[in-house]
């Protein structure tokens, strides 16, 4: 899965679609964030110090609004995964309840047949098939041979009847036990059905909240990027690319810092263990990477996600040139993200939480590429390309690293 990587400072504008700077009237904030106004921007442009301060203010507002939508989108993914798991549990419980009920019905039929046969044999013990009672014929027969024959028949019928009665008793007990199990299974199925319904409603609510936050964030971020472009005399498109690279690079630096701290802790633990076992000091160890996103991957039915691997690859093919990569790099990128996610925008690693086509870890790192990272393959790809650019320089270098470690990661 993806070690959350980041893109380098300057990213070519073509990577992320944008618009030219168009000063607009700022709408009333929809959240606690205080957004800079165009009047603030215009006043700051006349003074370099004020301009720098305003750039920082705009960047802070941008990060704050991204964070709000990112949190709600991450919650929507978790809720969707929980709802899918509840559906899977319900399906398994339904299958179990149905199977047990079928077995119980079959056992009941077997018990009924055994009881019917026992009744028939009991009648044969009373009658020999004619109109005379068998006991009367045994008592009145004068022929010793006939007497022995009648006694033998009676003994055989008695033994058979006893065996059939035993079978009937076992079948009845089995049927009773299976019916009890079927009843418990149906109760469990009903409980799981209720839970699945509750979680489905929660998932829908979380998705609605995420969609609303994404829409609000996109409206504000469009204006904030335009304000940055005005302050820096560039375009909104260039600012999107630049800010993506800067923030992904910061993510990469933070990730590296944490890995180095983890490696240092591991070395210290190994040194302490070695010192306890042997007075001669010695240490070893290195930081470990994440495992491949292709292992233990689910595809939650997150609302709004369009799963289109071919379309995602087409978009990536159109975007890699912005980094100076040739068509030879596309093959490596296809191999890399095929292994990681199958190029599916809703790919979720159930053990780590890595998400999306590039398997960002944590998933909401992709928020720096756009508020719609949960559902938009292009936004995921923009983040992933920036990550590869900053961490490895090219898709082939990332793919070579992926293949050089086991378990695989990049």
Automatic annotation (TrEMBL):
Using the UniProt annotation, give all residue ranges assigned to the region (Disordered).
178-218, 253-300
Region forming the signal peptide: 1-27
Q: Which domain of life is it from?
A: Bacteria
Keyword annotations for this protein, in alphabetical order, are: Coiled coil, Signal
- Start-end of Low complexity biased regions: 193-204, 265-290
Q: Does the keyword Coiled coil apply?
A: yes
InterPro entries, per this entry? Answer: Lysozyme-like_dom_sf
Sections of the chain in a coiled coil? 83-117
What ranges does the record list as Basic and acidic residues composition bias? 181-191, 254-264
Question: What protein does this entry describe?
Answer: Transglycosylase SLT domain-containing protein
From what organism does this protein derive? Curtobacterium luteum
From which lineage does this chain's organism come?
Bacteria, Bacillati, Actinomycetota, Actinomycetes, Micrococcales
């Amino acid at each position: 899965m993806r070690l959350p990587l980041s893109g380098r400072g300057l990213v070519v504008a073509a990577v992320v679609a944008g618009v030219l700077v168009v000063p607009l009237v700022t709408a009333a904030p929809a959240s606690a964030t205080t957004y800079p106004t165009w009047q603030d921007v215009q006043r700051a442009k006349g003074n370099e110090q004020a301009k720098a301060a305003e750039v920082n203010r705009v960047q802070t507002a941008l990060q704050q609004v991204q964070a709000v939508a990112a949190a709600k989108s991450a919650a929507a993914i978790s809720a969707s995964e929980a709802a899918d798991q509840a559906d899977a549990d319900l399906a398994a419980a339904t299958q179990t309840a149905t199977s047990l009920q079928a077995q119980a019905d079959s056992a009941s039929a077997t018990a009924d047949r055994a009881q019917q046969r026992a009744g028939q044999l009991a009648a044969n013990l009373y009658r020999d098939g004619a109109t005379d009672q068998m006991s009367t014929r045994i008592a009145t027969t004068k022929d010793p041979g006939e007497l022995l024959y009648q006694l033998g028949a009676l003994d055989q019928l008695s033994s058979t009847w006893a065996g059939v009665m035993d079978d009937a008793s076992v079948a009845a007990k089995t049927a009773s036990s299976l019916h009890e199990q079927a009843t418990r299974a149906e109760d469990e199925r009903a409980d799981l059905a209720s839970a699945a319904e509750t979680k489905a409603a929660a998932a829908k609510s979380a998705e609605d909240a995420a969609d609303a936050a994404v829409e609000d964030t996109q409206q504000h971020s469009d204006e904030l990027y335009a304000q940055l472009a005005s302050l820096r005399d560039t375009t909104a498109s260039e600012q999107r690319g630049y800010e993506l690279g800067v923030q992904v690079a910061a993510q990469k630096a933070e990730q590296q810092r944490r890995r180095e701290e983890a490696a240092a802790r591991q070395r210290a633990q190994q040194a302490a263990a070695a010192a306890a076992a042997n007075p001669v000091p010695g240490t070893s160890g290195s930081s470990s990477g994440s495992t491949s996103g292709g292992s233990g991957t689910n595809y939650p039915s997150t609302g709004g996600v369009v799963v289109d691997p071919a379309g995602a690859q087409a978009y990536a093919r159109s975007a890699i040139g912005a980094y100076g990569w040739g068509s030879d790099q596309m093959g490596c990128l296809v191999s890399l993200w095929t292994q990681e996610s199958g190029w599916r925008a809703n790919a979720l690693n159930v053990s780590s939480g890595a998400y999306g086509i590039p398997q960002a870890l944590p998933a909401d790192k992709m928020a720096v590429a756009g508020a719609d990272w949960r559902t938009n393959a292009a936004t995921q790809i923009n983040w992933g390309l920036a990550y590869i650019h900053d961490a490895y320089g090219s898709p082939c270098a990332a793919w070579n690293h992926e293949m050089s470690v086991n378990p695989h990661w990049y």
